[in-house]
Amino acid sequence: MLKTLLARHPAVRYLIAATIGVAGVLCFAPFGLFWLAPLIWLGLFQLLCSAGTTRQAALSGLAFGLGFFLTGVSWVYVSLSVFGGMPWWLAGPAAFLFCAVMALFPMLAGGIFKRWQPNGLWRQALCFAALIAAVDWLRSWIFTGFPWLALGYSQAAPSPLSGFAPLLGVHGLSLLVALSGALLVRWRTGVIFATLLIISGFVLRQVPWTAPVGEPVSVALIQGNVPQEMKFRPEAFLRTLSLYQQLIEQNPAQLTILPETALPIFFNQLPPMYVERLQKAVWAHGGDLITGTLSGDPDAYWNSAVSLGVSPTQVYSKRHLVPFGEFIPPGFAWFMAHANIPMSSFSRGPENQPPLAVAGQKVAVNICYEDVFGEELIGVLTQAGILANLSNTAWFGHSLAQPQHLQIAQMRAAETGRPMLRATNTGMTAIVSASGKVQAVLPAFTTGVLRGEVRAHQGLTPYARFGNYAFLLLAGLCLLFSQLPSRRR
User: Which stretches make up the CN hydrolase domain (predicted)?
Assistant: First the structure.
């Protein structure tokens, strides 16, 4: 009956696809229904298999993507309109257009799947899973990349499948989830395969890919909760400096980390007496401080993290910039003229920057959404034993962005076998273990300091050694086997 309805009324097919896409957001943080992901992508698989034409399948993928991204990254509108100062009549279409571009990727997967749809469940499932994961990987680098809400992120801890992260990375997890979902067309086959995956994931989680080294380091991660609308106002500047100085002095630690642009001024323009007070505060207990700030001058400036303390002063400058937020793509100056985003023309930091040597450790710093690009973080792991992310998610208000970003950090920790320290302005400031579990987290939109201890880890996971090559090989083999001619009696 459903097949007849879909054949007679194609619009119903696209409405169902969009609804399934909306429901797919439930698989990710903060909802965390990771077990639902195979069922959601089973629904997409069945819609693609039942499509009568390549065009129908492609449009089904587009509808799924629109429902998925318009719901899952709705915070793009918040950043443009509420905090970016863009009028709603421009921010709304801009956010919709952005989500529509993201929806082209599942559309591409749907069209290719139908164009070369093989016979037999296993071949179809392998083809579907490889394409779903491949388009997630494709959008992780094309147009500077936006891999947010890649399917594999739904399987961050506590999902048992997180055990595969050190082997295959997030895109390999996307493939496994999509494959298990497609195989559920035949419940017995699907349940058996899913059970084997779960058991394998539990076993892999027990493998010590990396090992702790040295003594624990005390850390203090400071969440200032400075409202975004006040961050760059001159009248709030002194209050911001005073707030961070007070929190640093009251929470001594070997390593103190402040959020991205916590000190919203060029570092060399800070009052010398203030810098001296910060130095004394961390010197008093033999510690180091990493703070987000600006480096350079008004003609060429960087989004940076600067260290102060007993170790020599060091700087890390952000390499992977946010389009429209930190740099203006060619031809879009007219668009940004309608927004009020301070410091929107950053320069890119150098490609190969060493980790910061602080608190007797080597800390690999990344800023804001740089931690979304897992393969860009692994080059420094032969030296670094700890990852640290400095973010300012105040741009996205009370939205899904904060818990989603923490889930991404969990995946990076699991992939690399390194603990991740997150210092954010409004949330979610957290300590993530080397296995990807959240050890402690501060409530969002509160002023506070998260204190704890962390140990550096040494050694390399398979993902840290080979990056996405293992996933690409697996996806290629799945596509190859799916297109092999079937035996005929």
Answer: 222-456
